[in-house]
Amino acid sequence: MGQTDRPRQRQSQRKETKTVADTVTGALRDVAFSCSASLFGTACFKDCEDLVPRSIPFSIRDLPYSVSVGFRLSDPVMDGLVDRPTRTYQYHYRQVNLLIDHTLLRMLGKLHELGYEGFPVPSSQIVDWEAGTGHLAHKVVASVAGLGWLGRNNLLVSPLYGARVRYGSLFTNAPLRLTAQVRETPGRPGAAGRSECGSCFACVSACPAGAIGKSRADFDLEKCRQTLKNFERSENIGSMICGLCVKACRGAKRRS
Ligand code: SF4
Ligand code: SF4
Q1: Is residue 223 part of a domain?
Q2: 256 found inside a domain
Q3: Phi and psi at residue 70, in whole multiples of 5°?
Q4: Which of 18, 185, 238, 240 is the most core-located residue (most Cβ within 10 A)?
């Protein structure tokens, strides 16, 4: 093939990749929505590996693309929280986590069907008991996928549903159509950057620990964790959850 043919060849290869990416992304979106997901986004971590902890049990080079799915929590369940977590919230939280894991497995099955691999990140598996953290922060993956911003409460805030959403993440080697580009620092996800909280401070007054400050950078993780531990013991909840800043955060479109 002569040199003059190469641009055309590259063009047709790009076109082919685009079509595959669209097909895979569409198939995964269909699975997510058929499992009752409310939000779906995609991202590529090839150029921002630093946002993913080194401890994840796979290489971003092997699985650079990610899917983020968000499941809305029930408003009546959240509205039932007054000044502490309830057993009903804890049950709901666990069931939504199960649904997330189920959805990620269904998406993995679809990837296998299409000839690709994937790593469904457990929705709520603690891997570092001292720090109380999982494989990675699903909110960062969702943020890179453009599903919301990291708010004062250190949670992902969806413009539509606020913080009343739980997220799951799946990494894959399948090419995906990206729903968002990584923003530049300081608005970069995972960094203390751009927030769209504006004049809302609803979560600040809702927090019993005084852990939420003016900006996300002021968030006091230790104060929050201590309160969660107290709730876990005193309320016989059995999980380190609270939910009060989740309840308070309704998203830009639902404020006022
Ligand atoms: S989870 Fe509870 S203690 Fe922690 S920041 Fe939110 S409201 Fe405060
Ligand atoms: S409640 Fe308001 S200030 Fe707090 S994270 Fe949500 S939007 Fe931001």
Answers
A1: yes
A2: no
A3: -120, 135
A4: 240
Asked if the structure places residue 255 within a domain, the reply is no
* Helix ranges, 35-67 (H): none
> How far does residue 246's CA lie from ligand 1's centre (Å)?
8
Give the residue, by CA position, lying nearest to ligand 2 atom 7. 197
Quote the pTM value: 0.87
Query: Best of 207, 235, 241, 247 to mutate for ligand 1, by most ligand atoms within 8 A of CB?
Result: 207
Q: Supply the residue whose CA is at minimum distance from atom 1 of ligand 2.
A: 249
Sign of the alpha-carbon torsion through 99, 145, 50, 130: negative
CA–CA separation, 137 and 139 (whole Å):
5
Residue-range definition of the domain harbouring residue 42: 3-250
Q: Is residue 189 part of a domain?
A: yes
Helix (H, G, I), strand (E, B) or coil at 208: coil
Tell me the mean pLDDT in the region 165-178: 96
Ligand 2 contact via 197 beta carbon (within 6 Å) = yes
Active-site hit among 22, 62, 75, 128: 128
Provide the number of structural domains found in the chain. Answer: 1
Of 81, 4, 50, nearest in space to 246 by CA: 81
* pLDDT tens sequence across 103-161: 999 999 999 999 999 999 999 877 777 766 778 899 999 999 999 999 999 999 999 99
pLDDT tens digits, residue range 27-78? 999 999 999 999 999 999 998 888 888 788 899 999 999 999 999 999 999 9
Q: Is the Cβ atom of 211 under 6 angstroms away from ligand 1?
A: yes
Helix, strand, coil shares of the chain, percent, nearest 5, are 40, 15, 45
- Please confirm, yes or no, whether 22 is among the known catalytic residues: no
As a whole number, the mean pLDDT across the chain is: 87
